[in-house]
From TrEMBL:
It comes from the Eukaryota. Residues 1-21 are annotated as: Disordered. The keyword Electron transport does not apply. Involved in the cell surface expression of neuronal nicotinic receptors. Binds RNA. It is found in: Nucleus inner membrane. Keywords: Membrane, Transmembrane, Transmembrane helix. The lineage of its organism: Eukaryota, Metazoa, Chordata, Craniata, Vertebrata. The chain crosses the membrane at residues 79-98, 110-132, 159-179, 186-205, 225-252. This is Unc-50 inner nuclear membrane RNA binding protein. One of its GO terms (cellular component) is nuclear inner membrane. It is a multi-pass membrane protein.
């Protein structure tokens, strides 16, 4: 994060500017806007969600514009997070219906998915990527250049959204209908595992784009290396008859019992 300077300070940042651009101040501003829906730009957030599927590079170009105009890489508008939460809740309720769960079981599943799978795992992944990028990927380790934790969290949310739509929404229509991917039938687990391949591939690629967009990072291509392991697991799963969707459904049912 680059420090800003006040025009009256002859190159020395004023205490007011410094306070305004601290991580705590940015976090407070972001969380405060969660209480004011009218201040959120949902139309722009929906535009980002669309382009995460069709042209994710355009989404990260907008992060560049935000850095130039607001001196921060991370989002200052929680509209994307709110819409993502709505998608998560609706799709989880859909899973409850598809798996014939009762109201209480569906509510328990929703709490697990929101607070553990999304928030908990998201915080863990974001913190890990924030540490790795600042520790090993900086071109010139200097105090004036670092990856904002909020930006690492935004990259995770960007990458998580296509995965959510594919595995938590689109996949619902295949579990008990069409090719019935929650079964031992070859076509079933072939289609199901292919959806997993596409979803996780999206996650890895959009994560790579997020860190590759930062001009002060180098060797970000290493973030694409997990594609080799992903491809290997996919072909092994088809050869050995592993059904990832069946495993997810079993795990969800086991959680709420």
């Amino acid at each position: 994060m680059l420090p800003t300077t006040s025009p009256q300070s002859n190159g020395n940042p004023s205490s007011r500017d410094a306070a305004r651009h601290t991580a705590g101040a940015k976090r407070y501003k972001y969380l405060r806007r969660l209480l004011y829906f009218r201040q959120m730009d949902f139309e722009f957030a929906m535009w980002q969600m669309l382009y995460l599927f069709t042209s994710p590079q355009r989404v990260y170009r907008n992060f560049h514009y935000r850095k130039q105009t607001k001196d921060q890489w991370a989002r200052d508008d929680p509209a994307f997070l709110v819409l993502l939460s709505i998608w998560l809740c609706v799709s989880t309720i859909g899973f409850g219906l598809v798996l014939d769960m009762g109201v209480v079981e569906t509510l328990k599943l929703l709490l697990w998915v929101v607070f553990v799978d999304c928030i908990g795992v998201g915080l863990l992944i974001s913190t890990l990527m924030w540490f790795i990028s600042n520790k090993y990927l900086l071109k010139q380790p200097r105090r004036n250049f670092d990856v904002e934790w909020g930006y690492a969290f935004d990259v995770h949310l960007n990458a998580f959204y296509p995965l959510l739509v594919i595995l938590h929404f689109l996949q619902l229509f295949f579990i008990n209908h069409l090719v019935v991917i929650n079964s031992d039938w070859f076509l079933g687990y072939f289609v199901g595992n292919t959806l997993w391949l596409i979803a996780i591939g999206y996650y890895l690629y959009i994560t790579f784009l997020g860190y590759n967009a930062l001009p002060f990072l180098s060797n970000t291509v290493v973030l694409l290396y997990p594609f080799a392991l992903l491809g290997l697991l996919y072909f092994l799963s088809i050869f050995l008859g592993w059904n990832f969707t069946w495993g997810l459904c079993w795990f969800y049912k086991y959680r709420v019992q």
